[in-house]
Amino acid sequence: MISLLASYRHSIARPLITAGSLIVYLISQIIILTIVAKLGHDMLGIQTTLSDEKFLAIARTWESSGLTDTYYLHFYLDFFHPLIYSVFLSSFMALAFNRRSISGAWNFMLLLPYLAAAFDLIENGMHVYLLSDLNRVTRGAVLFSGICTNLKWTIALICLFGSAAFFFTTRNNAA
C-alpha cells in the first residue's frame, strides 16, 4: 500500500493536473451555482441541517413554489462534482507535500479528498431519496445526511487551507 500511495503521489503531483482540475471544478461550480441560485440560502440550509423539521420546512417551501425540480437539476453535475474537486485537492496536496518535502509516511492524507467526495455522494443520494417522498424524512435520516455534509465540508476545507498553507508559505529554517 505504501508503494501504491508513493506512486499515486508521484502521478498526481503535477501542476497541469492541479490547474486543469481546478478549472473544471470552477466551471462545474459556476454552473451548479447558476442552477441553484433561485433556491437562495435554503440550498445550504437543507444540506447542512441536522433537523428534520428544518429539512421538511425547506422541502415543503420548494415543493409549493415549484422549486424542487431546480434542486434535482443540479444533481446532473453534482454526482460528478465530488470526483472533480477530490482530484484537484489531492493533486494540490501532493504538490504542497513535495514543495515542503513532506515524508511519504503522510501520503495516506492524499486520500482525504476522496473521503470528502464519498460523504458528498452519500449526501446527494440521501437527498434524492428523501425529497422523492417527504414521508421518508426522519430525524435519523436527516441527521445522517447532515453529518455527511458537514464532514464533507470540514475535510475539504482542511485539505484546501492546509495545502495552501504548505504551498504558499515559506519554510522557516532558523536554527
Write the layout of secondary structure elements.
Layout: H1 2-12, H2 15-36, H3 42-48, H4 52-65, H5 68-78, H6 81-99, H7 112-132, H8 139-168
Helix pairs in contact: 2-5, 2-6, 3-4, 5-7, 6-7, 6-8, 7-8
Q: Can you give a write-up of this model?
A:
- With 175 residues, the protein is an all-alpha fold.
- The protein has helices at 2-12, 15-36, 42-48, 52-65, 68-78, 81-99, 112-132, 139-168.
- The mean pLDDT is 95.
What keyword list fits this structure?
175 residues; 8 helices; mainly alpha; elongated
Mean pLDDT: 95
Cα-based radius of gyration, to the nearest Å: 19 Å
- Please report the total strand number as a whole number: 0
- The poorly predicted ranges are none
The percentage helix is over 70%
Note the main sheet. Answer: none
Order of helical and strand elements = HHHHHHHH
Distance between the termini: 36 Å
Query: Given the helix and strand composition, which structural class is it?
Result: mainly alpha
The 3D shape can be described as elongated
Strand content: under 5%
Q: State the helix count.
A: 8
What can be said about this structure in brief?
The protein is mainly alpha-helical and 175 residues long. The protein has helices at residues 2-12, 15-36, 42-48, 52-65, 68-78, 81-99, 112-132, 139-168.
